[in-house]
Structure formats: C-alpha cells, structure tokens
Amino acid sequence: MFKDFLVSTPDEKGKITTQTRKTQAGKTVYVLYEIGRTYNAAKKYNVPHRVVIGKADPNDPEKMYPNEKYFEHFPQTVDKVEPTEENSLRSCALEIGSFIVIDK
Question: What are the domain boundaries of the chain?
Fold first, then answer.
C-alpha cells in the first residue's frame, strides 16, 4: 500500500534503481532498493535481490510515494515526510454536514 505523502528519493549510490511498467492509465515508475546479491557460480555473475520501496511522482522525479518497505529500510526518514494537500480524503457530504448542523 502506497502512502499519500511524498518523500525524497534516497540517494544511495548503486543501490537505487527504477523500473517502468505500462499500466492502463499510462506508465508507472517504481523505485527499487537493492538489499543483497547472490553469486551464481554456473553463470559467473551476481544476481541482485531488490524490493520495491515506492512509486515515483510523475510531476517531480526526485520525489516518490513510499510504501511499508521504505520505512523498514530507511527508518531515519520518518520525521522528514511532506504531506500532500492535493486531494482531500473527506467527501463533500461530510464537509457540508457539519455546516448544516451548526446552521440549525
């Protein structure tokens, strides 16, 4: 589950990658974090192990919407979250309901 606020994309050299996937709504860019590597002796190369830590913001590529894995691997950034004010989670009926009660 992706959160509804933005954080800056971590700047760890060689550990952060992006992956673009086509969806019905367009293209989605996922941010992946490399947690380890396993050496494949038969093929003689390393196989990276990655987890998705968020989804990139289409308006600002330096920001991303984090998920639970982001806070597992970067617990020090919990205090640095930026809330978004674009869409309200309350419906119009709930907003007008308190006004009607106070007006009566």
Answer: 5-103
